[in-house]
Design goal:
Structural class: mainly alpha
Radius of gyration: 37 Å
Oligomer: single chain
Order of helices and strands: HHHHH
Keywords: Membrane, Transmembrane, Transmembrane helix
Strand content: under 5%
Protein name: Cell division protein DivIC (FtsB), stabilizes FtsL against RasP cleavage
Number of strands: 0
Mean pLDDT: 79
Helix content: over 70%
InterPro entries: FtsL/DivIC
Shape: rod-shaped
Pfam family, one: DivIC
Organism: hydrothermal vent metagenome
Number of helices: 5
Length: 120
Amino acid sequence: MISAIAESGAIRVNMSQFKRFLPSFGIAMMIVYFGYHALSGDQSVLKWLAYRQQEAQVQNQLDVLQDRQQVLEKQNQMLRDGSLDLDYLDERIRSKWNFAHPNDMIITMNIRDNLNFQKP
């Protein structure tokens, strides 16, 4: 049976077809290989998108922390020797140590609500 197929040239035709499609098959395998690694792995497009989203979240946290730093720097500036704000100092002492004159009316305000701070 094999000798009949070999004599008829069927194997030669199949080998020539195989040789003809081998470069196309190789290129297709390369496309699949590089396509797979472009979508998965440590340096893939999906990881890049996740890093971009994480970068946006970290940038938002940085903005909140920078706003908080500005507030703290302003408060620190009011307590320095050269520019000591006595009203602010009096307010801080009364709030930290719970001092109040019997005739004082105490109104507390949450500074974070007024400045629209977000909790990190």
